[in-house]
Design brief:
The chain is elongated. The chain starts with a helix and ends with a helix. It is built from four helices and no strands. By secondary structure, it is mostly helical. α1 packs antiparallel against α2 and α2 runs antiparallel to α3. 11% of the residues are buried. The longest helix is centred in the middle third of the chain and has 40 residues.
């Protein structure tokens, strides 16, 4: 049983390391891309950076969840629980920022690209309809002469 626990600890620690390393790479790649987009004045820079940060935090959060498998003390569990709550809160805030940014961009794009169309004014009642008095008079004259 001790051997199994030892191998589980090695596998979990390796997985934690890999997940946290991926999180760091994703964050660095997103930050470098955001810097490039900022220099190029890309209006979507903030949204792209937020998405990269959210993805990086997901990997880091996965590492913290795996860390709970090998914890032995209650104080370590409390520490890891606090880290998980903090990272989950950050993830929530970043997703909220992404949703807000996407909504603002959509509203902005609709405002820019929406060309107003002028619909013809429809008469509200019969009195508002245009009358052709000449036609009516001609028809009346034809009936009277017949």
């Amino acid at each position: 049983m001790e051997i199994l626990h030892h191998w589980l600890e090695i596998i979990v620690k390796g997985s934690i390391f890999i997940l946290e390393l991926i999180g760091i790479f994703v964050l660095m790649q997103g930050a470098l891309r955001a810097l490039y987009n900022y220099i190029k004045h890309d209006p979507h820079t903030r949204l792209k950076l937020c998405r990269a940060m959210a993805m990086a935090l997901e990997f880091k959060l996965g590492g913290e969840i795996l860390r709970t498998v090998i914890v032995r003390d209650l104080s370590e569990i409390a520490l890891i629980g606090g880290i998980i709550v903090l990272r989950a809160g950050l993830t929530f805030l970043i997703h909220w920022a992404i949703t807000t940014e996407e909504a603002e961009e959509k509203e902005h794009e609709e405002h820019i690209y929406h060309e107003p169309t002028i619909a013809p004014r429809r008469p509200k009642n019969v009195c508002d309809m245009p009358h052709n008095h000449n036609k009516l008079d001609t028809e009346t004259q034809l009936i009277d002469h017949a």
